[in-house]
Amino acid sequence: MRVVMSGERISRKVKIEGGYLNFSSAHFITYGGKCERLHGHNYGVLVEVEGSLGEDKLVFDFTILKRLTKDICKRLDHRFLLPLHNPQLELTSSEDNWKIGFNGKHYMFPREDVAELPIDNSTAECLAEYICGALCDELRAYDTSNLTSIMVGVEEAPTQMAYYKWSLSE
Ligand SMILES: Nc1nc2c(c(=O)[nH]1)N=C([C@H](O)[C@H](O)COP(=O)(O)OP(=O)(O)OP(=O)(O)O)CN2
């Protein structure tokens, strides 16, 4: 094993990307006082976890990380991504439906087709933050004492991606 010199810093990370780490969903965002038309994306997700080596010489088990992330993707797949906290949208729910209004335009979605998300807007940035939070909740069941950060990237298209990084310690 290599001797670490004083002042040297080692950093390690594991990354999962591709495969089933994706979801195909409908959405629109509000921005610049406007509301986009309803459309969809084939979103891709990547996760990077930084930290030191644990007892088994893993930063974190890829297999577990993939399964947890895949499960979160499944909850979003083939659904309309509803940002529950968007102040520009008028949201009305009934037992079976969500009605969404913006400046006199209205959409109605069956509840079962909707992913109700506690976010302000379904931008790639907010989706990355949501997925990161959901992943951190799931990771509570595991020993994460060696981890220093978790980053989630959400790709709307190969040309555009947003990241959210949560640092667990300095
Ligand atoms: N930083 C961000 N910018 C934009 C986001 C976002 O989430 N984060 N989202 C959008 C829209 O949702 C839009 O769907 C982006 O799609 P895009 O493919 O860019 O739309 P265009 O039709 O303009 O581009 P084409 O490449 O011609 O398809 C906007 N910005």
How would you summarize the topology of this molecule?
Blueprint: E1 13-27, E2 30-31, E3 34-35, E4 39-51, H1 62-76, E5 80-83, E6 90-93, E7 97-102, E8 105-110, E9 114-117, H2 124-139, E10 147-157, E11 160-167
Parallel strand pairs: 5-9
Antiparallel strand pairs: 1-4, 2-3, 4-10, 6-7, 7-8, 10-11
Helix pairs in contact: 1-2
Ligand LPXRUNBV binds next to helix 2 and strand 10.
Count of DSSP H/I helices = 2
Rg for CA atoms: 19 Å
Distance between the termini: 26 Å
Strand order of the largest sheet: 1-4-10-11
How many strand elements? 11
Small-molecule binders: the ligand Nc1nc2c(c(=O)[nH]1)N=C([C@H](O)[C@H](O)COP(=O)(O)OP(=O)(O)OP(=O)(O)O)CN2
Strand pairing plus helix content: what structural class?
alpha+beta
Largest sheet: 4 strands, antiparallel
Structural shape? elongated
Low-confidence stretches: none
Helix share, percent: 10-25%
In percent terms, what proportion of residues is strand? 35-45%
pLDDT averaged over residues: 95
Order of helices and strands: EEEEHEEEEEHEE
